[in-house]
Amino acid sequence: MGSAGEVNWKLADHPKLPKDKVVAMVVLDGWGEADPDQYNCIHVADTPTMDSLKKGAPEKWRLVRAHGKAVGLPTEDDMGNSEVGHNALGAGRIFAQGAKLVDLALASGKIFEGEGFNYIKECFETGTLHLIGLLSDGGVHSRLDQLQLLLKGAAKHGARRIRVHILTDGRDVLDGSSVGFVETLEKELAELRAKGVDAQIASGGGRMYVTMDRYENDWNVVKRGWDAQVLGEAPYKFRNAVEAVKKLREEPKANDQYLPPFVIVDENGKPVGPINDGDAVVTINYRADRMVMLAKALEYEDFDKFDRVRFPKINYTGMLQYDGELKLPNHYLVSPPEIDRTSGEYLVHNGVRTFACSETVKFGHVTFFWNGNRSGCFNPEMEEYVEIPSDVGITFNVQPEMKAKEIAEKARDAILSRKFHQVRVNLPNGDMVGHTGDIHATVVGCKVTDDAVKVILDAIEQVGGIYVVTADHGNAEDMAKRNKSGQPILDKNGNIQVLTSHTLQPVPIAIGGPGLAPGVRFRKDLPNGGLANVAATVMNLHGFEAPGEYEPTLIEVVDN
Ligand SMILES: O=C(O)[C@H](O)COP(=O)(O)O
Ligand SMILES: [Mn+2]
Ligand SMILES: [Mn+2]
Q1: Going by fewer Cβ within 10 Å, which terminus of the chain is more open, N or C?
Q2: CA 482 to ligand 3 center in whole angstroms
Q3: In which residues is Mn(2+) 1 bound (predicted)?
């Protein structure tokens, strides 16, 4: 198929299903299916709308896979996440995702032969190599074992001075696990030092407070990181990073996600690793959403989001290219998955008018991720993307309602306007509140989500439309770390270990609405169906056959 110019965008008419119905495509972020117990916030919450949809099983409600290989991740132990989930939902095919592509490039050694690595190598003789990114084995944005291989390989290929700028996790992994990850990294760096490489941690901070904001919700987060990483300035100074993380968890008693920024200083109190002219910088995260803002700050000559004070002349490389459309960054170690011919692009070419909406923290999920990591519309005359500003500077357990109501009302208005064939939203609460680990607040978030779904389904009822309600991965349905037999793991005080991360659970998908043709039901021959099967399903509901290379549709039409 090659370049976009050669693609035949025309979709065949579906032999049985009509066109021009309004289809609401509702993605509940972090809403998996799990056994009911007190740590299943969806079960605990009052969710009459979602409960009623479930009664449609097996013809109008079923489960689909949302983790591991079904969404292009390396193993079945990899939980799902928003990027891979929305990529699969929008693209209708399973692509080897960043995690996997980086694994392959490291295993074959190709990562050290590419243009990106050669570009940073130019600095090895006289400059420092800086590695910035999320330090954990969560596997959503980055992985510690990949960082370890990159460190070894960089040293082998001539890096003489290396500084690592860490971001602690506690969101894709258990809170408190940062100490162990920093210790492991310190061992790795000590081994490099034993081989004559001057390698150390230079700065750090918690991912949600330092650097890893997304969709331009709060540039202060990136600025805090910039000050520590580039300028070597931070409110906290330590001689070593293990001590930094341990102390900051005690005072000001921050959790891993929200550790304040710190820099590591030498015996004279001087920061050990600011970024200077002639240095090389790699952002080690493969996932784009929470690295793009820093990538812009590191790469763009013209930049007005905050005062950078200094803009060092560096050779900057991403682990991946984060945005193909913006070519950001220009240099990268591993080529990203080429997610082409997405359902959004096809539908636009076939006259389907689309409205997409979420609040800032999930806005890119139903636009950028949905469209194969591509920013912007395909055709502004056919599409309208609406972003509702998210609350800034709070953790979402204090405001678990988030903007669910506003998103639902925008969707309702778009549906009732009859201007659009597809109205697509992401409702963030189950996920964003689930990540805080606050069970009570997450229950509230689930209830609010259910209310929002009702608003959208009521509007669909009014216009004789169709709804598809699904999710991108699990989160709120399980808030407890469990042992192999599924029992919550208790600490010595009898408290559960709170699971802030996503899960390996499947997610529900429900179809319905007055516009759904009689005889449409879920097929029984796709028991292992996953999120990638949804795009063909939605194309059918718009009255089209899906392209042949798409994963098969989940529905069939039987004669009544
Ligand atoms: O970036 C995050 O918030 C988490 O690492 C993953 O959550 P998401 O995949 O739902 O965005
Ligand atoms: Mn998600
Ligand atoms: Mn999440």
Answers
A1: C
A2: 19
A3: 431, 435, 502
| pLDDT(451) > 50 | yes
Supply the ipTM of this predicted assembly.
0.99
User: What's the CA-to-centroid distance between 82 and ligand 1, angstroms?
Assistant: 6
Q: What integer best gives the mean pLDDT of the chain?
A: 97
Alpha-carbon gap, residue 381 to 11, rounded angstroms = 20
Sign, Cα dihedral of 211, 149, 325, 531:
negative
Q: How far is the CA of 92 from the centre of ligand 2 (A)?
A: 17
Atom of ligand 1 nearest to the CA of 214: 1
* 108 flagged as catalytic: no
The closest-lying atom of ligand 1 relative to the alpha carbon of residue 362 is 11
CB-based pocket (< 6 A), ligand 1: 29-30, 81-82, 140-141, 171-172, 290, 431, 435
Query: How far away, in angstroms, is 161 Cα from ligand 2 center?
Result: 37
On whether the pTM is more than 0.90, the answer is yes
Pocket test for ligand 1, best of 135, 167, 168, 171 (most atoms within 8 A of CB): 171
Beta bridge partners of 200: 163
Report whether 231 contacts 274 (CB < 8 A): yes
Q: What angle do helix axes 241-250 and 178-194 make, rounded to 10 degrees?
A: 160
d(CA 122, CA 130): 13
String of b and e for 230-249 (b: at least 16 CB within 10 Å)?
bbbbbebbbeebbebbeebb
**CA 201/CA 189 separation, integer angstroms:** 8
pLDDT tens digits, 147-179:
999 999 999 999 999 999 999 999 999 999 999
> Which phi and psi (to 5°) does residue 473 adopt?
180, 170
**Number of Cβ within a 10 Å radius of residue 376:** 12
Task: Mention every residue, 6+ apart, whose C-beta is less than 8 A from residue 417.
Answer: none
Q: What is the 3-class SS of 42-87, one letter each residue?
A: HHHCCCHHHHHHHCCCCCCEEEEECCHHHHCCCCCCCCCCHHHHHH
Average pLDDT for 102-115: 98
Q: Whats the size of the chain, residue-wise?
A: 560
Per DSSP bridges, beta strands 466-471 and 507-512 are antiparallel
* Residue 5 pLDDT: 59
What's the rounded Cα separation, in Å, for the pair 427 and 323? 24
pLDDT tens for 61-99 read 999 999 999 999 999 999 999 999 999 999 999 999 999
**344 Cβ contact partners less than 8 Å away, ≥ 6 residues apart:** 90, 354, 370, 371, 378, 383
Q: How confident is the model at residue 1 (pLDDT cuts 50, 70, 90)?
A: very low
Burial category of 369 from C-beta neighbours within 10 Å (exposed 0-12, middle 13-18, buried 19 and up): buried
Question: Can you list the domains of the chain with their CATH numbers?
Answer: 23-96+338-557 (3.40.720.10), 99-318 (3.40.1450.10)
Ligand nearest to the CA of 432: 3
